Amino acid sequence: MSAGPAGASVPPLTLRVAVEGDVTLVYCSGKLTAGQTGAFRDEVKPLLVRSKKVVLDLAEISQMDSMGLGTILSLYVSAKSAGCQLEMVHLSERVRELFRITKLLSHFDEYGEHIIRTP
Question: Residue 83: left (phi > 0), alpha (psi -120 to 50), or beta?
Fold first, then answer.
């Protein structure tokens, strides 16, 4: 199951990293699916040891599958091990629903309508 319209033309994943003080923001757009998760993990994981807080802005994620979910969960575990706080913001309703139906939403504290933050 993916969070996006079936058959829709979705651009590949692009990431833009910005640092604001001790917070690293990762703006994600496109699709976070099986073919894209390796690049996503390779870009974000090193940030977890260099930052106290990493925020994944998922506002522009139009499609996500189980590999995308698994990669985010893996990054969550890596962040905890590194003493880093990992947050996700601006989840679309479809992406949020994927977290709900896989029961992964319970691993995150929810703040507001479009923000999810790890404990």
Answer: left
